[in-house]
Amino acid sequence: MSAHESRDAAVSAPDGGEPARVSDSSTQMTFAAQELRLMSALVVILGLGLFLALPFVLSIGSVVFLPLVTALILTIVLSPLADKLASWGLPNVLASFLSLLLLCAIMMLALGLILQPAVALFDQLPQVVDQVSKRFSELRANFHWIASANEQIAQITGHTGREVVLASPSVFEQLAFATPSVVLETLLTFLMTFFMVEARVRLRRHLMLDRSDFGSSIKAARVIREVQDRVAAYILTVTFINAGVGVIVALGAWALGVDAPVMWGGLAALLNFLPYIGPLAMTAVLALYGVGTAETALLGIIPAAAYLGLHTVESNVVTPSILGARFTMNPVVILIALSYFSWIWGVFGALLSVPILLTLTAFFDHVGRPNLIGFIFGEPLFIGNPQTTEPAEET
């Protein structure tokens, strides 16, 4: 066989089909796709393991991690205010301290509006509990046939319904044990917040000037700016909306003759930071207090019904129209984040859940979101390009 015939046999298939090089290239592409999918599967498994193991680590180390995460969120919120104060000619340290001092003053004012009337109403708690018990006893008397049916079922099945009472620490004992930890975490939070806010200028300069690649510096600066602007705008907007809800609730409580209307307004504004769960808790508290203080159960339900109507208008009309689509998040994802961080850090985790979720959303908008659903059906784990602000060059 001549050299020319040997070259043709190597290039062409025996039956005159596709060249061997095309077949080798297709085999390499298939192997690369399988390798990529294997690596993506490993990434998903590692991410799932981290998601399941992270709560135990964060919960055990809550004294360190909770102040750190809270300080990061507060730094994102206070940085624009510190920048504004610094633009007026104030030194960076003084601007950072004043922004933190303003936050502390607002928090102390809000707690004072809620706690001081609550202490005054604490003496009425036994009477309210007795009245609520009477209302429920009357309601249970109207459905006595249900209790009779339960007793008959218990006699048939042989269950006696014994109660087991476990001794638990009193409220004052729990407060005594929790106070040192709360004070320590609060001090750590404010200290870390101050130093993070004060170091924001050096951080920006480090990201911009200490990178070998100018493109990566620009991208890092954009990510930080986008996260800061989105989270700060969301928290400030929601704060103003919740303050408006608190004012309306206080005026409504005053018009209905409810005691301590300012306390109810402040409590409504504070609980409105917890999506779904906060308004439900506020409705339940208003209903119980109204039933325990009003002459009839029907009159006692009126404050709770009025608040529920206000919340329906606020959550479905006012808030979406002000925040817009930029801050729209899946309710299922919000509830998952709420339960996830509540499981780890309790009430503080619930308050931090939405800011943390918004921060992660803004971050993944730039670096790319994992395509978990599509990955199950054979698609790549990461598809599309991360969000950019520069238009693509025309070809």
UniProtKB/TrEMBL annotation:
Cellular compartment(s): Membrane
GO cellular component: membrane
InterPro entries: AI-2E-like
Top-level taxon in the UniProt lineage: Bacteria
Cited Pfam families: AI-2E_transport
The entry's keywords: Membrane, Transmembrane, Transmembrane helix
GO biological process, one term: transmembrane transport
Disulfide bond found in the keyword field: no
Region ranges (Disordered): 1-23
Chain segments annotated as transmembrane: 38-58, 64-82, 94-115, 175-197, 231-256, 262-289, 296-313, 333-364
Lipid bilayer topology: Multi-pass membrane protein
Chief place of localization: membrane
Protein family: Belongs to the autoinducer-2 exporter (AI-2E) (TC 2.A.86) family.
PANTHER family xref list: BLL1467 PROTEIN (PTHR21716:SF16), TRANSMEMBRANE PROTEIN (PTHR21716)
Name by which UniProt lists this protein: AI-2E family transporter
Organism for this UniProt entry: Tsuneonella suprasediminis
